[in-house]
Amino acid sequence: MAAAALFSGVNTRRRLAFPLLAFAFAAVMLGTTLPTPMYALYAAQMHFAVLTTTIVFAAYAIGVLGALLVVGGWSDAIGRRPVLLGGLVFALASAVVFLFADSVAVLLVGRLLSGLSAGIFTGTATAAVVEALPAAQRERGAVVATVANIGGLGSGPILAGLLVQYEPHALTLPFVVHIVLVVLAIAAVLIAPETSDRTGRIGMQRLSVPVEARAVFITAATAAFAGFAVMGLFTSVAPAFVANVVGNDNHAVGGAVASSIFLASAAAQLAGRRIAPARAVAAGSAVLVIGMVILAAALHFSSLTGILVAALVAGTGQGISFSRGLAAVVEQVPTERRAEVSSTYFVVAYVAISLPVVGAGLAAHAWGLRTAGEVFAVVVAALAMVCLAAILVQERRGTPASV
């Protein structure tokens, strides 16, 4: 009888693993974008400008990159659950730090911890969610992992914006909510059984791109750089655009604008899974150019609707080009080298989500937020056009290594 009950319990844990791990994934990613609508409040309380906001935001990318490079492959060696629990500890620590934040230095620590949680969690949680399903359903697992990842990122600004705008304790309540979600996520990971065979080894993640994949990588990574730069811009200063350029001080609206780019990206990634890589990267680059033209016009005319449309269009372009660009790159290399190539691709993406945004902050300090945003849009549009032109030239020449 006891053995039967134990067997039944094991089966129940296996059945629950998929939704539990997807929930934990979404909960962690939600926390990484939670502060977005709150930066204006911190700026007013601590007396800093948009430049400091972008630097605080960029600390997140440093944490992500550090985690990707140091522990990116650990879950293959020690299992998914220990690594996921480590990521959740960092997420919990980040929320607690933000709960008591009273200086820019503390905000930087909170964002760094948040980046570490995301860097540890993203790859491992994606693998765990996919592995929690039978082999025949792995494609569905990949779809759900994408939704949990990008959906979590998109939910953070909406949740925080609503709480900040309509509930008391604006700088603490969002993080109390996140602490509760993280505690539930810890329980979810503890309940879910291990999904990895533990066949890897512990070591620093190597970064490299084989010669045969470099032409593809350069094109795809350029598109990824442009798309992630825009994601970083909207995640860090979209509420500032809404408040300072448009003149709308509603934090829920600012949060919704920041969220929209993630939601559009998730929808585009799912819808574009069957598009040929070259066509997807080219189409994504073209759509991103359109989005940047809309953003520049929206900032010039102080249009809230225009900024929202720009976020949706740019998110669509980023989603199509990023996911299919990665697919194009990994198709060019042997299985045993895909981890290092994928990691290199993500390093480019997370450099793009931080450094250009800090550049935009410097420009805002010198020229004002509106002009900085317009210049940013023009530069990203030019970069996306270069990527698009390169793909078209490669296709016309019939270059085998093209995306």
TrEMBL record:
| Example GO molecular function | transmembrane transporter activity
Q: Where are the transmembrane segments?
A: 20-42, 48-71, 83-101, 107-130, 142-164, 170-192, 213-238, 250-268, 280-301, 307-327, 347-369, 375-393
| GO CC terms of this entry | plasma membrane
What are the Major facilitator superfamily (MFS) profile domain coordinates in residue numbering? Answer: 17-398
Q: Which domain of life is it from?
A: Bacteria
Query: Per the record, a Pfam family?
Result: MFS_1
Bilayer topology reads: Multi-pass membrane protein
Does the entry feature the keyword Cell cycle, yes or no? no
Q: Where in the cell is it found?
A: Cell membrane
Main location per the UniProt record: membrane
Instruction: Identify the keywords attached in UniProt to this record, alphabetized.
Output: Cell membrane, Membrane, Transmembrane, Transmembrane helix, Transport
Recorded hits in PANTHER family, A to Z, give:
MAJOR FACILITATOR SUPERFAMILY MFS_1, RESISTANCE PROTEIN MDTM, PUTATIVE-RELATED-RELATED
| Protein name listed in UniProt | MFS family permease
Q: What is the lineage of its organism?
A: Bacteria, Bacillati, Actinomycetota, Actinomycetes, Mycobacteriales
